[in-house]
Amino acid sequence: MSLAVLNGVMLLVGYWLSLLLARRTLKPIERAIKQQAQFVSDASHELRTPLAALLLVNEVALRKSTLTDKKARQVLSQNVAEIKRLTELSNSLLDLAKSEGVVTDPELVNPATLIEEVVTRFTPAAQAKRVKLVYDNQSPTGDVPLQANAVRQILAIFMDNAIKYVPPKNGEVNVIAWVNRKKHALEFAVRDNGPGIAPGDQKHIFERFYRADAARTRTDVSGHGLGLAIAKSLADRCGYTIRVKSQPPSGAEFMLVVSHVDSR
Questions:
Q1: How far apart are CA 78 and CA 72, in angstroms?
Q2: CATH class of the region 3-99
Q3: Which pLDDT tens digit goes with each residue over 187-238?
Q4: How far, in Å, are 37, 47, 114, 193 from residue 247 at the CA level?
Q5: 225: how many CB neighbours lie within 10 A of its CB?
Q6: Per-domain residue ranges for the chain?
Q7: How far does the chain reach from its first CA to its final CA, in angstroms?
Q8: Cα 55 from Cα 157, distance rounded (Å)
Q9: 46-60 residue pLDDT tens
Q10: Which of 31, 45, 59, 215: CA 20 to 30 A from 132?
Q11: SS (H, E, C) 157-221
């Protein structure tokens, strides 16, 4: 084989190797750009809905030559409701952006104290709906290294969803934490007696803006489908695992698993 032919073969092989490596390098970037574009599209769609409702209410009111006090108050009330919805959505989008930020160093935290904080925070909401909150006092009392703020936010999302979906007056939400010594893991669980989540929806509920078509969506609960996406993003950034168990109509259980942990 002549030197010219050998150089040609090496150049050809080098070209294809470079192309292959370039494609492998660009794939994650292309995926991130696609996800970002999809997120912007979904967020824009979600923002348009309350804005369109707000615009329609005001346009209809402006077409009337006169407005009674009752009608004016009704228009203002609708405006306030849509503004609150926009505020909640904006806050959720900000929380989602923050959840994809840099993770801080773990700190030593008592899981029992952390759960008490979350339960105390949601007690007024539970009382307003006459929902029973059950906190297991058998939770571990030793300090463990945790991304405390992330765990608080994840548990808060679980609690918020549970209280929203359980029936009023006879609803019940159970919160528990324990150390699985065999697996060297700290496990948190939030269980409710709500309508549950259909098996076909469980694999999608952590997607952004996804709201299940099962019984949980057929309730009068409003939402944007961002809470569990935020929880999943936080868990992934911290190296934690989220699991869900549900057999409709027997409620749902959301679990946060923190691996490689022993109580101290």
A1: 10
A2: mainly alpha
A3: 999 999 999 999 989 988 988 777 664 445 445 555 567 789 888 988 998 9
A4: 35, 33, 28, 11
A5: 19
A6: 3-99, 107-259
A7: 70
A8: 31
A9: 677 677 778 888 888
A10: 215
A11: HHHHHHHHHCCCCCCEEEEEEEEECCCCEEEEEEEECCCCCCHHHHCCCCCCCCCCCCCCCCCCC
Full DSSP string of the chain: --HHHHHHHHHHHHHHHHHHHHHHHHHHHHHHHHHHHHHHHHHHHHHHHHHHHHHHHHHHHHHSS---HHHHHHHHHHHHHHHHHHHHHHHHHHHHHHHTSPPPPPEEE-HHHHHHHHHHHHHHHHHHHTPEEEE-TTS--S-EEE-HHHHHHHHHHHHHHHHHHSPTTT-EEEEEEEEETTTTEEEEEEEE-SS---HHHHTTTTSTT---SSTTTSSS----S-HHHHHHHHHHHHT-EEEEEE-TTS-EEEEEEEES----
Place of tokens 């009608």: 71
Residue holding tokens 């999943």? 232
Compute the distance between CA of residue 103 and CA of residue 110 in angstroms, rounded to an integer. 20
